[in-house]
Design goal:
heterodimer; A: 626 residues; mainly alpha; 2 strands; B: 494 residues; 21 helices; 73% helix
């Protein structure tokens, strides 16, 4: 069978499911979830066919407009990614049939999530960067719509706006990158945005457009990735995006869409390493800084979903940092990054969904300080959450250990590979990050699971039926066992790489994580934390205010710069308009003459026109004589 | 001669609207709908090879010595714009209430007839006459049917455009006389007057004069900063159907002037003029976007959005002129020019979509101030979804037609503007922000209970809005045919 045809239907199936589930939902609401899940199950099946039938990269494209083409590009990276996206999306859709089961607008929800899945699969399979950008914006649109799904909540409406505008900043940088790449390369190759050409002929691209321009282009693409994958300093939208339904957070803001930025860099990786070591160092330092930065904020947030959101930002930082370690890992940096992306998608989707179950019981009260003692009341859910927390904290032998610690070890080698001091920063940041990860994860977990219930709702919480939890259990099994497949995964993506570091380096992150767990257990399992008074500490208040970055954006840039600028432009505009009117009326003779026009008599208008044309005609003839 | 007969019959039928009595609206709908189909079939028969260069010249001589004849010509670009004008007029007529009476419909139809004549005209004098023919009915529509201050606003609209058209006429006559001096025969044909060789034969001053006159006339109609102050008032004061005609159909006049009339001489546009055009375009984008953000009225905000979007057209023309003269690789400037033309085309559709959905929202809520709406998604989900789609189209979301145009312009202009492109990006960000902000304040959030019960979209309004939306999406997802028609026109003419 022709693989490219299969690939087309991987994303066409949920795209067809999008209107179907909406219109079916108008008649029977419950049907829409089934149709959406079914269409994604087909995608998963077709992705498996792609995986099993894959022999060599396939690139098939059709002319879209001008010299831009669209089509599908199948290679190990895209196959792996479609498998993950369709699988996780299917799990989340199945869970959403339970989670969104009572919402009056669930047909809209399922229509939008199938459109989202179609967009994500299309993005992964794109053969052309412009097509990639089209899907990139479709998933962004779905994210906007789904964050604002409960549109009547003012918070949700403003979070949706924030997500759209902040990611739009990245998107605009991306589009400029595309424009520059196109206009500089078109003289050398007629289809310059063709992904396969760009990655197989990266050195030709470098020769054609020069190192400076290539660096500019990949940095602009990085800007897009920073917006989409919420890296510092454009990470501010994800925590607010938690206003959407929890399944949306699991699907879009944890497992799939936010990884699109990482995928973009992985997709175009040859361009990145062609552009020089500075670009790669930027990836490493940006990712590792984001990892520690978001981890610190995660420690002081009390909203269960926001803790997970900051954790997502931090883990995306690990993936970004892994991509910067080209000096050590060579091409398999992509494999290490993608492997963590996969493991993260599994356990983070699971964590979000178990948080969703808890939030159903808690009537959407998201403050972890109001929970407590849930392990005895919701044993199934909280045990799943426990597995997720262990994986997130990268405790042996969960998959998180294999994916994250190999990145940290690689960053150690990266430090030793160069003599400059600043090459040590990624390793230091990532190692501290592993301590922070365990600390914020288990702070959340102990507050949720242990101690006494601190609210009526928590005291009466109950597990849902086992069927609702089946998707979570499937993901939990994967989180526990996926570590076994690390080598197969890396080999499939092209070349495994064995990292050998001294044992004390290898075990350092896990020891730090264990210390963090013990410390948080000591503080948060009982009620000791209630007696801690951190409010006086200056560091605490800086972190609690998210390093004042959100304030800088909304209070300073938006409200003190853009809005005043806009209102001053609007008043200039008004003055200008009235000035023009004054000129029109001010000059007396001309003015009275013009005012006669307002008599409303049609004849006078025509007379005026004819007179004017005659005058003009005469002037023209006079001018023509000269 | 078919095109000539088609046009004359359209004009006669248009005048018939004035005698339509209470059947004026269905009559106008049938005529526009029918002519849309006829034109569509005719154009497909002409352009099925997607070769968009001028291909027919049909004329009735009036005074052959002075080169004055009624002649029509057709290019891929003007064909698409003719379809757009007829379609937009159909939309405007469709949403006009019958209470406006036969004169209103007659004037709407007359605007369309003038516009189609302008697009098809092959003779500078008739081009000018149609330019005025379009002006008068719109002046009356705003002045008679508009809201507050309609008199002075319509006068401002009239005077503004008129200054431009006088300068345009002067330019045409200087071309006319120099053509006579060069060859000894009179001709008024656009294709004979606007040639690089004729312009090169003129003294420097007159060359500048010709370009100055033409640019002022066309930039007023686009509009470009600082020649825009007729626009927000006219758009806001005019009744919605007229706003649709203004924003959807009339806004193509300036762009058609640039790309339909001046494209053959783009290679001899003085570099200083091109630079000024680029600067004005970028300033327009930023200025109108920032001014739009603070507008309290949805209609006025979208008026500025419309003006800002036309900034792309100006930039596209200016940069491609420079690129052609600096012999940049041809794929760049053809993309640039085509993007500008595509922007003119889709901007009309998008604005028709925006103002049509705003019309239905204001009809159902009675409000058009942003502050007096809020959360209407709860009561009118379908209408709100249409407005949201229109806003997304207007901010240039990929998948909608506006993106194809904006991306083509962006990719085309880079060789000339370099990193100044960041200013355009800033403006696009502002554009996205105020569109989304408006959606948040009007559609989402808690329902403004002061609005009472409001009705959702009726089947009639859903149908017309769906058709416009589908057209925008089709032009955004499958732009190939329209784009190919425009790009082959561009490469054929340059």
């Amino acid at each position: 069978m022709d693989l490219s045809l299969v690939a087309w239907f991987v994303f066409l199936s949920p795209l067809i499911g999008f209107p179907l589930s909406y219109f079916a939902g108008l008649y029977r609401k419950n049907l829409s979830g089934l149709i959406a899940s079914g269409s994604i199950a087909i995608s998963l099946l077709l992705s498996l066919i792609l995986y099993l039938g894959y022999t060599a990269p396939v690139h098939s494209s059709i002319n879209w407009f001008y010299s831009f083409n669209y089509g599908v590009f199948i290679d190990p990276l895209s196959i792996a990614m479609v498998l993950m996206v369709s699988f996780v999306s299917l799990m989340i859709h199945l869970f959403a049939m339970y989670y969104m089961g009572k919402d009056p607008n669930r047909h809209v929800y399922f229509a939008e999530t199938s459109l989202f899945t179609a967009g994500m699969l299309g993005l992964v399979l794109s053969s052309n960067l412009l097509e990639f950008f089209l899907f990139w914006e479709i998933v962004g649109l779905c994210s906007y719509l789904l964050i604002g799904f409960w549109f009547f909540k003012p918070n949700a409406a403003s979070a949706a706006k924030k997500a759209f505008i902040v990611t739009r900043i990245g998107d605009m940088l991306f589009i400029i990158g595309l424009a520059i790449l196109y206009s500089s390369l078109v003289a050398f190759y007629p289809d310059p945005l063709n992904i396969q050409y760009l990655i197989t002929h990266a050195s030709l691209v470098l020769a054609a457009i020069g190192s400076a321009k290539l660096t500019l282009v990949v940095l602009l693409f990085l800007g897009g990735a920073i917006g989409k994958s919420s890296q510092f300093p454009l990470h501010v939208w994800i925590p607010d995006a938690m206003e959407g339904p929890t399944t949306v957070s699991a699907l879009i803001h944890a497992a799939t869409m936010v990884t699109a930025g990482i995928y973009l860099i992985a997709r175009l990786y040859p361009l990145y390493y062609m552009s020089g070591t500075d670009t790669l160092y930027l990836l490493a330092i940006l990712g590792s800084f984001t990892a520690i930065f978001a981890g610190m904020i995660g420690l002081v947030v009390n909203d269960i979903k926001r803790i997970l959101a900051y954790s997502t930002i931090s883990q995306l930082g690990y993936m970004m940092a892994a991509l910067g370690l080209f000096a050590v890992l060579q091409g398999s940096a992509v494999g290490f990054s993608m492997y963590h992306l996969f493991v993260h998608a599994f356990f983070k989707a699971m964590l979000f969904m178990s948080a969703g179950v808890i939030l159903l019981a808690m009537m959407d009260l998201r403050d972890v300080r109001k929970m407590g003692g849930l392990w005895t009341r919701m044993p199934m859910t909280v045990s799943i959450m426990f597995i997720g927390s262990l994986t997130l904290a990268a405790i042996y032998p969960t998959a998180g250990y294999f994916s994250k610690d190999s990145i940290i070890s690689a960053s150690y080698l990266y430090m030793t590979s160069a003599s400059q001091w600043y090459y040590a920063l990624p390793w230091i940041f990532l190692t501290i990050g592993s301590f922070l990860t365990a600390a914020y994860t288990f702070r959340m977990f102990f507050l949720v699971a242990l101690g006494k219930p601190r609210s009526e709702l928590a005291a009466h919480a109950k597990d849902p039926s086992i069927y609702a939890l089946l998707p979570l259990i499937a993901l939990a099994v994967l989180s526990l066992t996926y570590g076994l497949f690390q080598n197969d995964f890396l080999t499939f993506l092209g070349g495994s790489y064995t990292i050998t570091v001294p044992p004390y380096i290898e075990y350092l992150p896990i020891i730090l994580a264990a210390i963090a767990i013990v410390v948080t257990f000591f503080i948060y399992s009982g009620s000791r934390w209630e007696r801690m008074n951190l409010a006086k500490s200056r560091l605490y208040s800086v972190v609690k205010n998210k390093f004042y970055l959100d304030k800088l954006y909304t209070d300073v840039i938006a409200e003190r710069v853009i809005l005043p600028l806009s209102s001053s432009f609007a008043s200039i505009e008004e003055d200008y308009n009235s000035g023009i009117e004054r000129i029109g009326r001010g000059s007396l003779d001309f003015g009275t003459f013009l005012r006669k026009l307002q008599s409303g008599v049609v004849e006078s208008y025509f007379t005026l026109i004819i007179l004017a044309s005659a005058v003009v005609f005469i002037i023209a003839i006079v001018l023509g004589v000269f | 001669m078919l095109l000539l007969y088609l046009y004359i019959s359209l004009f006669v039928l248009t005048v018939g609207t004035f005698f339509g009595g209470k059947y004026a609206k269905p009559y106008a709908l049938i005529v526009t709908g029918l002519y849309f189909l006829i034109f569509l079939i005719y154009f497909i028969s002409k352009f099925y090879t997607l070769n968009g260069v001028f291909n027919s010249m049909q004329s009735i001589p009036i005074s052959s010595y002075y080169g004055f004849d009624f002649s029509l010509q057709l290019s891929g670009f003007s064909a698409l714009l003719v379809l757009l004008s007829v379609a937009v007029t159909f939309i405007a007529v469709y949403i006009s209430g019958t209470r406006y009476g036969k004169v209103f419909f007659g004037l709407e139809m007359l605007t369309m007839a003038g516009l189609v004549g302008l697009l098809l005209s092959a003779n500078v004098l008739f081009f000018y006459i149609f330019w005025e023919v379009v002006l008068i009915p719109v002046y009356l529509l705003i002045g008679v049917f508009g809201k507050k201050n309609a008199d002075s606003i319509s006068l401002k609209f009239f005077v503004y455009t008129h200054i431009g058209s006088v300068l345009m006429l002067l330019s045409f006559f200087s071309l006319y006389t120099y053509q006579y001096e060069n060859t000894g025969t009179f001709t008024m044909s656009i294709s004979a007057l606007l040639t690089p060789s004729l312009i090169n034969s003129m003294p420097v001053f007159w060359r500048g004069f010709v370009f100055f006159g033409l640019f002022v006339a066309f930039l007023v109609k686009l509009p470009t900063f600082p020649l825009h102050s007729w626009l927000p008032d006219s758009y806001e004061s005019a009744p919605y159907p007229v706003t649709i005609i203004l924003a959807g159909a009339l806004s193509i006049m300036g762009g058609f002037g640039l790309f339909g009339i001046m494209l053959p001489v783009i290679s001899v546009v003085p570099a200083s003029f091109s630079t000024v055009l680029i600067i004005l375009g970028i300033v327009s984008l930023i200025y109108f976007s920032l001014a739009a953000m603070s507008q309290p009225s949805m209609k006025r905000m979208m008026a500025y959005a419309s003006a800002a979007a036309m900034g792309f057209v100006t930039i596209s023309f200016g940069t491609s002129a420079l690129e052609i003269q600096n012999s940049v690789y041809s794929a760049n400037y053809i993309l640039d020019v085509t993007g500008g033309m595509y922007q003119i085309l889709v901007h009309g559709l998008i604005m028709a979509f925006i103002f049509a959905s705003l019309y239905y929202i204001s009809r159902s809520t009675g409000k058009e101030m942003i502050g007096s709406l809020g959360g209407i998604f709860r009561e009118a989900p379908i209408l709100s979804a249409f407005l949201l789609a229109a806003l997304l189209a207007s901010l240039g979301l990929p998948g909608m037609a506006g993106f194809v145009a904006e991306f083509s312009v962006l990719a085309g202009i880079f060789p000339e503007v370099g990193m100044w492109i960041m200013l355009i990006i800033f403006a696009m960000l502002i554009t996205a922000s105020y569109h989304i902000w408006m959606a948040q304040r009007t559609l989402f959030g808690p329902y403004n209970e002061n609005l009472g019960n409001i009705s959702d979209s009726t089947p009639g309004s859903s149908v017309i809005l769906t058709i416009i939306m589908m057209a925008i999406i089709i032009l955004g997802v499958f732009p190939h045919y329209a784009f190919q028609l425009l790009s082959s026109y561009a490469s054929g003419v340059i």
